[in-house]
User: Fold these one by one.
Assistant:
Number 1:
Amino acid sequence: MKILVGVKRVLDPYVRAYVKPDGSGVDLSNAKMSMNPFDEVAVEQAVRLKEAGAAEEIIAVSIGPAKSEETIRTALAMGADRGVLVEGERNLEPLAVAKILKQIVEEESAQLVLLGKQAIDDDCNQAGQSLAALLNWPQGTFASGVELEGETTKVVREIDGGLETVELDLPAIVSVDLRLNEPRHASLPNIMKAKKKPVEKKAAGDLGLDLEPRMKILNVSEPPPRAEGVRVGSVAELVEKLKNEAKVI
Amino acid sequence: MAVLVVSEHNNSELLEVALHAVTAASRMGGPVEMLVAGSGCAGVADTCARVGGVERVLLADAPEYEHHMPENIAPLIVGLAEGYSHVVAAATTYGKNVMPRVSALLDVAQISDISAVFSEDTFERPIYAGNALAKVQSADPIKVVTVRTTKFDAAGIEGGNAEVENVEAAVSGEGSRFVEQNLSQSNRPELTSARTVVSGGRGVGSAENFRMIEDLAASLNAAVGASRAAVDAGYVPNDYQVGQTGKVVAPDLYLAIGISGAIQHLAGMKDSKVIAAINNDEEAPIFQVADYGLVEDLFTAVPALTEALKA
């Protein structure tokens, strides 16, 4: 079985996002970039499935600027076998990403697609579900458990009320949540090996797909800051403030 | 053209999140209609019919819809969407699961997790864990929108007198089967709609110690939340998690206990009206957003606070 994993290059999760003064977006110049943390979990899951003998090959796909190759190399160092980089200059919307992934999934005849449930930059939480719709495949979103059982997969989903388990016929899409596993750190020898693994490059514009943005970003702003708070010296003072000043208890 | 709200329910009761989505929908221009898809859910449709401002309720009642599987529900919504300017749902795990499937089948871009409606095609949505707000304008003929429920008040279940119309079940999706749900049982108020939330973090130390947080919450009639660290450590189940990828809450009072205040946690609670934090680390970032900060060991402060509130 072939597994396809999507990996997105995003602002590092431990770095604060700053809005550009002209309101055109978030300033990413010179910012530390990393693999989307949810995608790391997806890569880890794919590698574990391969290690358990349930998959033969893992293809890591990234869609974005040329530097996304670094993100693919990270996935290769973690254990993916080869990469596909779809270069697109502008920020592609999740619908466009789903269309591109559909084409690659079909070319590769992948049986399982593992994606992060959401990218921590645009926070859209769409690509996996949209890809499943375009392929007419079943989906298991927000997964904290994935088991392969022959021609099906059992997915435990983190939902608002607790946990839900669904069974999906393969091929299927699984979007992963953070508690599915703890991603490994690539070892130095594996990082070296990853440099030699093949990465195929394509241009998004050459795929013959309608990738036009449907949304115009009119403005990006910082949310209004909270008024500065005060330190209280004791539990009694806290209770007094909450009761008489804030009037919330 | 009308705006269709996809209602979230458990086949017997309408969930409050749907009422917040109705309020957002009512700002998008046209009259508001609601879809109730489920099994044995006619009572939910009757509730929707009484929601103020709702003009029509579509009821798709079929056994295939019992578990609200997206493979089934999405084609149903797509079949109905033609007649609407917007299709709207709450940005809950239900809405997030089904709506991007709908938008892809309609070949439109979903507008996720909106926090404000400026006009029929222009919305605000938080990005980068809420560290930036994007004002976006959609060019799509049908707008598929999910709504951040804390940013819109709940519509009242009163004043409405809508017709309930049955709609045919669509072709059922194949390839997915519901196995089971394990829902957390709690006698505390629901996290996303509670007026007071008490959350515990890694500092609480264990599942056993978390009882202290529960006791404090009980004395305030508050819901109990947690940071990702506390959930990852197994102190509480996943549905307690507040944050960028967990639940977003905006209560009147958010009490953060032993929570350091990572960006990802702040994303889920910084719209709370009043934030109070107790942490023994005076450098903890949570104090930067707290209206009231108490630097004290939580193991002495929390029992004392619970006692003081009982008095």
Note: The first strand of chain A starts at residue 2 and ends at 6.
Number 2:
Amino acid sequence: MATTKPTTVEAPVRGGVRGWLGRLSGMDRDRLEQAVVGYAFVLPDLIGLLVFIVGPMFMALIISLSDWKLVGEPQFVGLRNYETIFKDPKFGAALGRTILYTISFVPAVYTLSLGMAVLLTRRSRSNNFFRTVYFMPVAMSLVVAGVIWRFMFDPGNGLINELLAAVGLPTSQWIGSVQSAMLSVIIVSVWKSAGYFMIILLAGIQDIPGDYIEAAQIDGANRRQVFWHIILPLLKPTSFFVLVILTINALQAFDQIYVMTRGGPAYATYTLLMYTYEKAFREWNFGYAAAMSVALFAMIFVLTLIQVRYFRSGEVKA
Amino acid sequence: MPVDVYQTPMEESKMKQYWRLITVALLVALLAAALPSAVAQDVLKFWTFEYAEDVDPFFEEYIAEWNATHELQVERQEFPWAQYTGEILTTGIATGEAPDVFFISPGDWRRYAESGLALPLEDYMPQYLLDDLLPASVEAVTLNGHIYSVPFEMEPVALWYNKAMLAEAGLEVPKTWDELVAAAKQLTTPERYGILIPTNPDYYENFVFYPFLWMAGGEVVNEDFTAAAVNTPEAARALDLWGTLIREGYAAPTSTGSDPVDERFPTGQAAMFVSGYWVYGWINSNYPEFVADLGVAPIPAPDEGDELKTVYGGWTVMVYAGTQHPAEAAEFAINMFGAEDNSRAAAWGIQYNTKLSPRQSVVADNAEFYENFPHNVFANEIFPTARPEPSYPPEIAQSVWEALQDVMFNNVSPEDAVAAWAEKIDAYLATR
């Protein structure tokens, strides 16, 4: 392609889409180019996010304002589904169980994974081994894990009762009684998630500059003091992230319970999401189920805001 | 396109790179948008849950035969059990991606039939098939005079027992509930349970409980489906039996994975097991060494001389009312098990599974097979006392397992439980 005059060449560039975009955004060409490339990179993800996350969320909001029984058109009912939530004793009971689960699960996983992370901070061959071992439950399929734990929790010949009996400790009915079923489910959930959060906390600990710890040690701090006064405060951003994700996971507890107990015995492990799932897919009461999901979302949102505020308030300026 | 002479070669290649990138991104987006419409070509969609691998040839052969002789091709999709009995059909219907033909459980049947989601099949069913099918099986899939699915299997529930363990304890097979409790008690040791009954709050628990309720003289709802029938001493007695077995520790309070096929029975961790006909096929392929110790009898009746009753389950094949090809879908669904030559219907129950066929000709044509244990017990003793699994709306089904769970695990008295149970059913029926 032969060209004669440069001016005719510049015109399509300046006057084309890029020129127009550039003028519109007030960016120079390089910046614009960077922005376009950047957006092009995230575009596939963005489309996925819009189609599979944001879209359904808005749909859920709309469905929650309607009475929809799968067959026929949804009927707009305003806030009636939300009014029902407040009058529904099953919702209250399921929420109570979900809260019980959350306040046991979140501190347990956090403490355990932090403990493991601290123990495994030093780089050594044996630590690599333990890291792998602690991480293994994360890699295991939840359904497989659930089934294995059901065997281990068997009150008759289960491994756990056998072990307890062997060392002379009292045995339990585990998932076979309303008193211990929730505890059993929480144990499995903690076992399943601790390894994952250990890795995140471990990375956080290893990001703390060694100078701080050395300085503290020179000033005579012992290991406990280093942990409480150096590591823990500097780990705050990571801890924040971990606690937020844990809380969200806990409020959405479903899979492990569905596999292990189906919410039983006698509703002892029937969480909010179990109830929502059954309202939707068993009773086809999609409007009410959507309203419960929106309510759960609101709860998670508010809790996260509180956590953000709490962690900001005492932010350590490193 | 003219070349930008002011661009350095570096810039040019960078420009090219990012245009290429945008093109790729756009292509990906376009492809993602176009994919669903490309997939939705004109086929007959057939959905089932995931069967064991050795059952697949049954479907493969039938579909190959159909596809070779019909222009409209059939595509089968199978889904994991939990999803299939959970959300998969529902989401399929909600999103307009419903299958044309699908297997439906008795638990879901009524809802689909009542909601107009099932195509009435009576006009497509040939007379020889209607004559061949057991009247009770046809009745179980009929609502308001329309046949909404084709029955193809029956799995009655019975009392399986470990012959060696009973002999060792010097016990006869229990014939009454008192004997059942006494046997379960005597057979319970620290290492094993006397008996296994379903413990997961679910449709399956109800299914196995119905024979106990019926034999005690109880019913869930009245005949016109207008009021609860459970607030009776008979229903309370049935609940009490299950509650006693659990509370006293004679029955396992948990299941180790699947209530219908519990490994603890063939591995000697339980002496008796209330479960269905399918148990034989499962033990035969997974625990062949246990078959010699396997015994089966009807579920005991409450008192001596009471009429024996049991339930049979079994999936049926349904056609979606919204199908674009009602005639082909109905033909495909009916011919799968209802072809004039009954060999496919027989193979389903004899070769691929352990199930009885609702077609009377199958038992007649395979008399030799039904002379052997345990098929003879099921065909001759247990099946004649069986009623099809009732299909209740989810609200009523839920009330059944709630009553059971309360008595088994919450120390609620059977009398209080039946009262609460009746209240829930009546409250629901009032909204219909």
Note: The longest strand of chain A covers residues 66-67.
